Amino acid sequence: MTDFHIRETEEARQRIIAVDGTLRRTTNRAHARLLLMGAVFTACCLAVVLRLSELAILKHVDAPDHVAASVEPPHSGRADIVDRNGDLMATSLQTASLYADPAKVLDSKEAAKKLVGVFPELTYGEVLQKLQSDERFVWIKRDITPKQEYQVQLLGLPGLDYRTSETRIYPFGAGAVHVLGFTDVDGKGMAGIERSFNGVLAQGGKPLQLSIDMRIQHIMRRELAQAVSDFNGIGGCGIVMDVHTGEILSMVSLPDFDPHDAGNAPPDARFNRDTLGVYEMGSTFKVFNTAMALDSGKVKLTDSFDVDHPYHVGKFTIKDFERTKPWLTVPEIFAYSSNIGSLQEALVVGTETQQRFLASLGLTHASPIELPEIGAPLAPHPWTRVNTMTIAFGHGMSVSPIQLTGVSAIIDGGILHKPTLIKQTPDMVQAGTRVISPETSDLMKRLMRLQVVEGTGKNANVAGYLVGGKTGTAEKVDHGHYGKKALLSSFVGVFPMTDPKYLVLAMVDEPKPNAHSAGFATGGWVSAPPVGRVISQIGPLLNMDPLDETSPEVTEAMALETDGKVHRVNLATTE
Fold first, then answer.
1. If pLDDT is split at 50, 70 and 90, which confidence band does 37 have?
2. Residue 496: is the preceding peptide bond cis (ω within 30°)?
3. Which tens digits make up the pLDDT trace of 479-522?
4. Architecture of the domain made up of 81-210
5. What pTM, to 2 d.p., does this model score?
6. Which part of the chain is CATH 3.90.1310.10?
7. Which positions are catalytic?
8. Cβ atoms within 10 Å of 48's Cβ, excluding its own
9. For residues 73, 74, 79 and 85, what is the CA-based torsion angle, rounded to 10 degrees?
10. Residues 6+ apart with CB under 8 A from 129
11. Angle, to 10 degrees, between the axis of helix 286-296 and the axis of helix 351-360?
12. What CATH architecture does domain 217-259+272-569 belong to?
């Protein structure tokens, strides 16, 4: 190899070494920069994590109150309605509604066909008419489901869009519809509590808590529906009430309807028989008549009245449903539900006293219950001697079933509590108004127990719960005349009679006799049984232990002097 080639080779080797060194230095500097950037990035991430942890975990005990309040999301929408146990009865949910701009719809016939495929309840003709409209905004379907919204989106049709709004939802459906009512498409209350408290509910905020217990509501609705069905009635109503507070635990009116589709409900289903209907309540009024007579001091428990012959008033004849014996004592008049005996008691007391007494019970003016659907009672004017006689046994004066809860005052020491649908806290319960003396109330408890044990209310008896009550069977008025076959059969019960706590009322409209009722459709056959079934089921729910009806304490509490001396009638059952 020549010197020239040797020098050339050496120079090439030196250049390679120089380039390699440069590359190594460049790579080292790059690694250093990457390490530095990684360290900085890690430090930043660590700082962020630490700050988030501080905000999420640490509690700033010295933060001012207005700071804590400012982070709470504002409530929007209509307030919920809950029952006494906090179970949701009404709430509002965000839903989508589908609309169209017809000017942007490319093929109205194809679009109408596809939309009817998603909404089969719509007709092709009505959808096509909307899509061919000259308007720039037409509703296709309001309050659609998320699934329907997704299906419409898959169609890919131009000119369609959505608007979100609140929809009122009732989780129990028709379960308490006459209490709750319903709202219109704009969320405005149109009936029931929704209407009465529309302003309060529209402001949002905490739920409105009702006195209703949905567990008891379901029981009453089921048992009342069975009674209406068994006797082929046209409807019925039922109430459960706390006699100490006036709280309504259940209010059922049948037939009822779906509040989500109130616009299609027939008028009879929307009619609240508990509060809007006014009826001649028949012999249940004898509770008031007997209490009035005894409290006046003009009628004694041991008094007897001649009931052997019908009572003639003008062209009318008043008689008893069935004949018993010529003379009846006051307890027997009540137990056997004698019309002739009751009217004589009322005549002894007098017309003015009767009018004042029934007014004190709230029977001559509309109920104060918190619903807009309230019927005004029909009282006679002028109030004559004849009216006094017929009202004594529940004819000639019409009241709503909710007004019949005035029976609670007769057995609760004589104190009347106004009925309410709002849950009462201890500081909300009003003192009430005295209508009869405690002594008269004590006698009435024993008489109402007697009516169930030995009278027409036997089918309401429930072992261990000492049920007392009164049956009622009234002929409905049709064009000024009483219809012999159009009856209102009712029973108002209270339990336990040693210390009354709850009132249970059931009424069936126009029941017909069935194969099991011996040809009768009276209150004792029709309405007493569902009251008994309700009591047997709600007693345990209300934490009420059955009583020993044969114990000396119960026997003494329910004993009744019938001759003013030593004879006593044991009103406790012995079965």
1. low
2. yes
3. 556 656 789 999 999 999 999 999 999 999 999 999 999 899 99
4. Alpha-Beta Complex (3.90)
5. 0.81
6. 81-210
7. 283
8. 10
9. 40
10. none
11. 120
12. 3-Layer(aba) Sandwich (3.40)
